[in-house]
Design goal:
mainly alpha; 74% helix; 14 helices; single chain; 0% strand
Length: 307
């Protein structure tokens, strides 16, 4: 198997697993704070084992500045998970995941504010389409849920997207540091921050709850990050970006088949607009037409044509 095919397999697996996160959160039956704490704790154990096996704990020495940036990213990741998981019961897994995919636009906004970056006209257009999608989703109502609760779920998912973008922005300051090591620091910080808030006096009572929490930590944090970073190293950015949209697709399928969620037409249209706009932003799609190729002598008597 070539590196490219191996990378495609790794990215596909990582995104498909990520799409099932919402199911495990619901099955765990635990409060959001407990879910994130146990995810961080099991994730720390899995990533520490992985980093040690890869020799990362021996080879890499981090400066205090790098540790500080990684810890800051960990705080953002924890806030991201808390808000996203809290959004699921209000707006459904599929809608929360769709709104969560506004994160590329949040990252562009941070770049504008702090790095002086200027988005292109096409990026502004995609932003407008995504915003229209969020408005459409917010106007709709999930079947059987109160309007106020539904809008709360949308707001929580938007907040989660912001903190994910913030974590990605901070990660830009850590070039040259092994991503596995960054993630290890982040989840360790998360476990430490949430320890005082976790309800350790009433641990999960059922085997299924423990299994769900362990899977969120060991699989969705440990294994998924190893697969994800391995794929990113093997694939061109545009292909990795395209495969990342397997995540929301799987999340929608899980919501429909596992929980019987049925989306209204306006919700479907809004979610689709967000995902298409996020794909356009991620993959660099442009609304500009390509300039026609310069006319010149046609080789071998062929007729020149526009590309």
């Amino acid at each position: 198997m070539t590196d490219r095919n191996r990378g495609i397999a790794e990215m596909t697996t990582a995104m498909a697993l990520s799409g099932t996160i919402g199911w495990f959160v619901v099955v765990s039956g635990r409060p959001v704070t407990d879910v994130v704490f146990w995810r961080c704790l099991f994730g720390t154990a899995a990533l520490a084992f992985g980093c040690a096996a890869m020799g990362l704990l021996r080879r890499h020495s981090l400066t205090w500045r790098q540790v500080g940036f990684a810890a800051l990213g960990g705080m953002a990741i924890v806030a991201n998970w808390l808000l996203l998981f809290a959004a699921y019961p209000h707006a459904s897994i599929s809608i929360a995941t769709a709104v969560y995919n506004t994160q590329p636009f949040m990252l562009v906004g941070l770049g504008m504010l702090f790095l002086g970056e200027r988005p292109t006209a096409s990026q502004f257009a995609w932003l407008g389409i995504a915003f229209a999608g969020v408005l459409a989703v917010a106007e709709a109502r999930a079947g059987g849920s109160a309007g106020g609760n539904y809008l709360t779920g949308i707001a929580l998912a938007l907040g989660a997207a912001f903190f994910y973008a913030l974590a990605a922005f901070v990660a830009k300051r850590l070039k040259g540091v092994a991503p596995h090591l960054i993630t290890l620091i982040q989840v360790a910080v998360g476990a430490a921050l949430l320890l005082p808030l976790a309800d350790l006096g009433r641990p999960p009572a059922s085997l299924s709850s423990w299994a769900a929490l362990a899977t969120l930590g060991a699989v969705h944090t440990g294994i998924v990050f190893v697969l994800l970073y391995g794929a990113i190293q093997k694939l061109p950015t545009n292909l990795a970006g395209a495969l990342s949209f397997i995540y929301p697709l799987v999340a929608v399928l899980v919501d429909v088949f596992a929980f019987g969620q049925r989306l209204a037409p306006l919700q479907i249209a809004g979610g689709a607009a967000i995902l298409v706009a996020a794909a356009g932003m991620t993959l660099g799609w442009s609304f500009r037409r390509r300039a026609p190729a310069a006319a010149g002598p046609a080789p071998d008597g062929a007729v020149s044509s526009r590309s």
